[in-house]
Amino acid sequence: RVWAWWAVVAVCAAADVGWDLESCTESDLSCRNPPTLSIIFITKRPGGYDVLFESLSRQTSNDYELICIDDLGEGERRPAAIEMAREKGVPLTAMLKSKPKVRGKRFGQCNAINSGLALSRGAFITVVQDNVWLPPSFVHRTLSFFLGKGQMGRDVLLSYPERRFAAPEGRLSQ
């Protein structure tokens, strides 16, 4: 079984991200129109991209962007992940390390989330951690929840309605 948790935030204010965005390539920052949902993927350990990209490639709704904050992404990992996203048709908007901090180390879960929030363009934002498998209806159900389908909609969802589920057979062997 795969356990996943994530927080969803409804509003993101523009912020000074602390990076030199002028030096980012087109694969770092997309010029597409903003999607409704921004998915922020945070990681600092090896692996996880294959599972994430595979599950995102099977979504029933494509109204999302993916922002990867990868504090391990050294060497060949970043280009390989960008290529994998392209091959799977995943709309990868940005793949960067966390923004510099005033004190202490660059790393940290909160700093990674804040870095992703600063780059997100969606009206709604969800944060997922590494080695997460998202069910095919994840984007659709998340947007349906926020848009309310005839209701006023909602501001914050602290966990996804499907907290525990099994990954497809053969996807996660260990």
UniProtKB/TrEMBL annotation:
Entries under InterPro entries matching the protein: Glyco_trans_2-like, Nucleotide-diphossugar_trans
Domain Glycosyltransferase 2-like: 52-146
Pfam family, any one: Glycos_transf_2
Entry keywords, A to Z: Signal
Highest taxon, organism lineage: Eukaryota
Leader sequence residues: 1-18
Name of this chain's protein: Glycosyltransferase 2-like domain-containing protein
Species, as recorded: Hemiselmis andersenii (Cryptophyte alga)
